[in-house]
Design goal:
Order of helices and strands: HHHHHHHHHHHHEEHHEEHEHEHEE
Strand order of the largest sheet: 5-8-6-7
Radius of gyration: 29 Å
Shape: globular
Strand content: 5-15%
Number of helices: 17
Helix content: 40-55%
Largest sheet: 4 strands, mixed
Number of strands: 8
Length: 446
């Protein structure tokens, strides 16, 4: 049973009714606020454990606060006592001030606006839910006998469930307010705290290369050391002279070749940059200049002999790139065949075939890791462009996982329209920036 399922069981209808009565808010709004705070606290703690000090603090708070799940045995009965409820709220608010410093006020404001409750009610709920979440985590620590690193790993195991369970209308503001961009994108990982043996010797979790020692006779120890130093000095001197000789000869040779090499490098870099730019801004094929000497890529064959790649064939685009180990990671491809009905999660005809093709590519290159970046400009009503873009790329991720692709190989983020909320102060162009509506694929690991 994962953490969210466990918390859903703990926060039964009777418990929610007790909480609503205590904060004097409607049960519907209270339930929405409770859900939002559970997502916020778990996400915040997940982010906290990306640092070693955060892992230590969370584990110490659970141990010193005696969070072992005993309180959850009959939570409804505990909440019948207003004085005890107030104690739990105070305790939770104190803990959250340490684990998520300077965020209590902003979290309360976010929940107040999201659920439509008073800010004072949101503060009380934040304290109470923090205590409940820590009790649930403490119960896992006790039952599974977890250390600090085990707790962090267990918490991070909830990332996939977290991404899937948070409502689309709440996810953008939660990510922005708590700073969960790296968590949602799958780019963050739990920190590892050094472990200490009973002897007091600290062992770090990082692996170190094995060190081998030559067995030497003790009687020859001093002479052997001098001999080794002498041989080492001679080798270093020989390498220095050899390096200098090679450098001089290489310089003479390369002087005559500099123009050709620079021209080739510029052309190759420009072709790659133009291809990336095309994938980001212009999904359909068109003639693009690639070098100052009137060299261009066309739909047929360019003067350099490079055949243009039709943007509709994902395999044809990616195979030459993935098969060339000398090309760096980070290339971006646009999934031009994947589209959605306006303002919805319904894919257009032909989109499923592109996703199937992508799954085949991922299976062909088992080391390949990708990031799906979604853009949307057709959100309406309560569905924002940012939440819609995230929901769409996450849907594609789920389909790839259903095809047998490990979720660790796929990150999914939504960037809304792709336009920053404000224009930089030094931007005096007054040019209206176009909104985006597409799905990009970035190669993270080849």
């Amino acid at each position: 049973m994962n953490l969210f399922t466990n918390l859903t069981t703990i926060l039964s209808s009777e418990v929610l009714l007790r909480i609503a009565t205590y904060i004097d808010e409607p049960i519907e709004k209270t339930s929405k606020a409770v859900d939002g705070l559970v997502y916020t606290i778990v996400g915040g703690l997940m982010k906290r454990t990306t640092s070693e000090i955060g892992v230590t603090q969370l584990y110490n708070h659970i141990q010193k606060g005696r969070y072992d799940g005993a309180l959850l045995t009959d939570l409804a009965a505990v909440l019948r006592d207003p004085a005890l409820t107030n104690t739990l709220i105070t305790q939770g608010n104190d803990v959250i001030s340490h684990l998520l410093p300077a965020m209590k006020s902003s979290i309360s404001s976010m929940i107040s606006g999201y659920a439509g409750i008073r800010n004072s009610s949101a503060i009380s709920l934040l304290g109470l839910l923090t205590t409940i979440v820590l009790q649930a985590l403490g119960k896992q620590v006790k039952e599974q006998k977890l250390d600090a690193n085990g707790l962090a790993s267990t918490l991070f195991a909830e990332r996939e469930a977290f991404v899937n369970i948070v409502p689309e209308e709440f996810m953008p503001r939660l990510v922005e307010k708590v700073g969960l961009h790296q968590i949602v994108a799958g780019l963050a990982a739990p920190a590892r705290r050094p472990t200490v043996e009973s002897t007091g010797r600290t062992i770090t979790t990082a692996t170190r290369p094995a060190i081998s020692y030559d067995m030497t006779d003790e009687s020859d120890k001093d002479n052997g050391a001098l001999t080794k130093w002498g041989v080492g000095a001679l080798i270093a001197l020989a390498l220095a002279f050899g390096g200098y000789y090679l450098y001089q000869n290489t310089q003479k040779y390369s002087d005559g070749q500099t123009g050709i090499a620079d021209s080739s490098t510029t052309l190759n870099d420009t072709i790659q940059a133009d291809t990336v730019t095309r994938s980001l801004a212009v999904p359909k094929e068109q003639a693009i200049k690639t070098a100052p000497k009137s060299t261009s890529i066309t739909s047929a064959v360019s003067t350099t002999g490079v055949t243009a790649i039709a943007p509709s064939n994902l395999t044809q685009q990616m195979t030459p790139y993935l098969g060339n180990a000398s090309l760096p990671k980070g290339r971006v491809f646009t999934l031009t065949g994947v589209a959605y009905q306006p303002g919805s999660m319904t894919m257009t005809i032909g989109s499923a075939a592109i996703i199937t093709e992508l799954a085949t590519i991922l299976k062909t290159y088992p080391q390949l890791q990708i990031q799906l970046v979604g853009y949307a400009n057709d959100g309406w009503g309560s569905i924002t462009n940012k939440s819609l873009s995230f929901k769409r790329v996450n849907q594609i991720k789920q389909q790839l996982m259903a095809s047998g692709i490990n979720f660790m190989r796929i990150d999914a983020i939504g960037l809304g329209t792709g336009i920053a909320p404000s224009i930089a102060r030094n931007d005096t162009s007054a040019i209206k920036r176009p909104t985006l509506r597409k799905i990009d694929l970035k190669v993270v690991v080849k």
